[in-house]
Amino acid sequence: QKEVEQDPGPLSVPEGAIVSLNCTYSNSAFQYFMWYRQYSRKGPELLMYTYSSGNKEDGRFTAQVDKSSKYISLFIRDSQPSDSATYLCAMSLTTGNQFYFGTGTSLTVIP
Amino acid sequence: KAGVTQTPRYLIKTRGQQVTLSCSPISGHRSVSWYQQTPGQGLQFLFEYFSETQRNKGNFPGRFSGRQFSNSRSEMNVSTLELGDSALYLCASSLQGAQGEKLFFGSGTQLSVL
User: Fold this and answer.
1) Nearest CB to A97: which of B31, B58, B105?
2) What is the pLDDT of residues A52-80, one digit of tens each?
3) How far lies A59's CA from each of A77, A79, B54, in Å?
C-alpha cells in the first residue's frame, strides 16, 4: 500500500464550477500537508501549506485536513481555464524534510 | 529572486551510459532535495543534501548518487542507465531543510533512456 493515495482522474469541469480534490494517507505521523500545482513540462508549484488539522483559505483555494480520517482535500472555487493542471498532494513527518507525494490528479477546466 | 534552476532541460541517453544533472537552488537556500517523477509512481524521494552532506536518502539503488558544493549547488549522477530510469528528475530547495519546511521546485530535467 502506498503511503499517499490520490485519484489520478482525469477530472473535467466547466468554468466556474467548484472542484474538490482529495488524498488519503496511511501514516498517522504526517503533520505537514501541502498541495502543489504542476503545469505540463513544469515543476510543481506550492499552492497551499497546512500544519496538522484544520482549514486554510487563500483566495479561491481552501485546504482541509482531517487527521482522524487521514484525509486531506483541496477545494477550488470559481474554477478558471488557467487552473487546468495536475494537482499533487504532499505530506511530511515531524522529523526530516522528506515529502511523500500522491501521484497527482489531472484537472481540465473547460471554458 | 531567481527560482530553482535545473540543467539541462532534456537529455537522451542509451542504456549503460551515465548522466549528470545539475541544480542551482534559490539564493540563500542551503538544502537541496532530488525527486524522480514517473507517471505510474509519481514523485519519489531520492536524497537530500545540506551543507555538502547527504542527510537523508530514499529507496533507490546505489547507481543514483549526488553531491552538493559549498555554494549549495547540487549535482545528481546516475550510472549504468536502465530503461526504467526514464523520468522527470526534479530538484527542490528549502532554507534549512527543517521539518515541514516548504519545498520549491525547479522545472526538472526530462531524461529519456533508449
Assistant:
1) B31
2) 888 999 999 999 999 999 999 999 999 99
3) 9, 12, 38
